[in-house]
Design a protein that fits this description.
By secondary structure, the chain is an alpha/beta fold. It has a single domain, classed as Alpha-Beta Barrel (TIM Barrel). It contains eleven helices and ten strands. The strands form two sheets. Strands 1-2-5-6-7-8-9-10 form an eight-stranded mixed β-sheet, sandwiched between helices. α9 links the parallel β8 (about 185-190) and β9 (about 215-220). α4 runs parallel beside α5, α5 (about 100-115) packs parallel to α6 and α6 packs across α8. The protein starts with a helix and ends with a helix. The relative contact order is 0.12.
Length: about 280
Amino acid sequence: MPGGPRYLELQQLMERQQLHTVCQEARCPNIGECWERGTATFMILGDICTRRCHYCAVTTGRPVGLDLQEPERLAETVQTMGLRYCVITSVNRDDLPDGGAFIFAACIRKVHEKVPACRVEVLIPDFAGSWLALEKVIDAGPEVLNHNIESTRPVFRRVRPKGDYQLSLDLLAEAKRLDPGMVTKSGIIVGMGETREDLLATMADLRQVDCDLLTIGQYLRPSLKHIPIDRFYTPAEFEELRQAGEEMSFRHVASGPLVRSSYHADEQHDAAVATLNAG
């Protein structure tokens, strides 16, 4: 459970800087552990999402305005925390022409400017298929570009009605086309009605677009308004999926009940770089 001096310190820091974290907004089960070790995933572009995914706890509605000072405040917070690895994600902002790509790029550049030793991972939305928006983010030079596919093809439309399975794959492929050296990453949530064969097919789809890193975690129902849990996977099943991913040549697979897309993200990145260097 959340608690401890470091957790309280970071909570107060986020409030002072008027920053949101996906740790809080999405009710992540790892918030206590991650905040105690001094890591957090920042959620930019406000806390209201223009899409309604049926497994997600983030508030849905119509966002208002754009905070152009957010990149500066975020970089100052990263500096204050002494981070060496920073994860930045966002709500969907379909109301903006570029989906918020400009703010993503500004955040990356500001963090690199203020804390040159800090590596930046971005967990981006699909930008409604705008490759110009994607290019803005990649040009800013993140160390890792993450876009979660979240579910399998047969289940996808039921849990992500405003998303598009193929578009998510196309985005990861386009990221590699724009920057062949970019480390790409994706994540899958299990327990929403998929089969093992579905999961293996989605993992194969991700490797087909040269996705480097993969996370697999258990769906935990945020409330009775969200889709029910189909089933809980056992630790042995998560281990089998991890091994299957490694056999498919992902550079690193994090698979476990409480694994989330940014859980120990720094260790995943380091493992990927080590594999690349060894190759």
